[in-house]
UniProtKB/TrEMBL annotation:
Keywords: Histidine metabolism, Lyase. One of its GO terms (cellular component) is cytoplasm. It is found in: Cytoplasm. PANTHER family: HISTIDINE AMMONIA-LYASE (PTHR10362). GO terms for biological process: L-histidine catabolic process to glutamate and formamide; L-histidine catabolic process to glutamate and formate. The keyword Lyase applies. This is Histidine ammonia-lyase.
Amino acid sequence: MSPVVVGVGPVSADDVVRVARGNAAVVIPEDAIAALTASRARIEALANSPAPVYGISTGFGALATRHIPPELRTKLQRSLIRSHAAGSGPEVEREVVRAMMLLRLATLTTGRTGVRAEVAQAYAGLLSAGLTPVVYEYGSLGCSGDLAPLSHVALAVMGEGHVRTADGTLTPAADALAAHGLTPITFAEKEGLALINGTDGMLGQLVLALADLDRLLVLADVAAAMSVEGLLGSDRVFAAHLQALRPQPGQAVAAANMTRILRGSPIVASHSGPDCPLVQDAYSLRCAPQVAGAARDTIAHARNVADWELASIVDNPVITDAGNVESNGNFHGAPVAYVLDFLAIVVADLASISERRTDRFLDAARNRGLNPFLAEDPGVDSGHMIAQYTQAAIVAELKRLAQPASVDSIPSSAMQEDHVSMGWSAARKLRRAIDGLTRVLAIEVLTSARGIDMRAPLPPGPATAAVIAAVRGRVDGSGPDRYLAPEIDAVVGLARDGSLVRAAETVTGSLS
């Protein structure tokens, strides 16, 4: 994989994913090195001035009133990182830490933060060597930057704390740096502050979540189409002329996907004539494009926010075009926190409608002729009864995770930081929610595949048949009750790695 170049314009969302998940190396071009050198000269001039400048010759936060003499400034920066590396709880995932490091490096290489070139190179070196600082779950309030998470990264650059090597081995940072020919950095004026004053943790998680949701939205259309087919629903309501009556862009995309997935289905054709007594399908079938479409449009807004943030320079103080060093509030995470919360609502609702479709398959009063719970021998066998319980438990959790974090604020730093975004918390709960949605959709696919099989001798359409074949490659078809948890996990794996969507696309072509 080619390296990601950092310092020539903003990094892209694709760059973030390549570094975070693809382990791409990172390089800094010469023009970015020149910008770093020029901005550092400005910081050093201010450091030699008798006038106090925040972050350069003063304390931090509520302690900014103290002027720090030159002989204590190295200690000031080192103490800042050590004291702020105060995280607690489980370790944060490797991909999140790598995304956060890349985004902080992207701001450093703009030449607006005043760090030396060797500091930026140290971050690039860690990423390229696959060394991931240990960062903990709790510690960020999403304002003044993701302070604790970013401080744990900076601590490793100092040669302190611990890192995970590329193979996951927990190693003292000093030993890992030495083994890879990297030198610990002693931070000079402003450098420690510049490394922790950003929204990089929450933004990195937003970018990764958007990549996941792009995949899951298409899977939601596949799952919904399979349920429509297996429950003898109608595809006529997805017609383009009906969707055009309400010109929501995402809705049109979702309906078009479902139409393509259901095209050529003998099951759908079997009840499409004028003599069919079924007048209207339940909302969970008929309104699937409206829900998935609204999700798409919300995600489009979140992507706009992510793109604006990727183009941002978040530091305090910051070097302006005029060469001044000025305080600002751009580290406040509200823009990112809001959309992270919006997405948690979207995820919960997509899972909720999916669970309702699964439940219809299992209820003999509503599944239009299938066995109760899709059981082989109802009463002896329970079929997928408890798979729906699992879905319901996850959906209930997703509803709790949809409660917004961004409406909360606990003041800190002796009331200097008296309003915070809680964006990191919003990001953490969204990651858990996306995992839950993946599991709920997988169970719907597993259940609908079984229901469609029970429509034999009528065969499914070509696209749904391809998805069922992918499932059957890992999970046997209908029969007496089996140990169900491994089968669910197998389909979750197919959902997570994109296999189910790719199977449908072998027939439909690329789905949007």
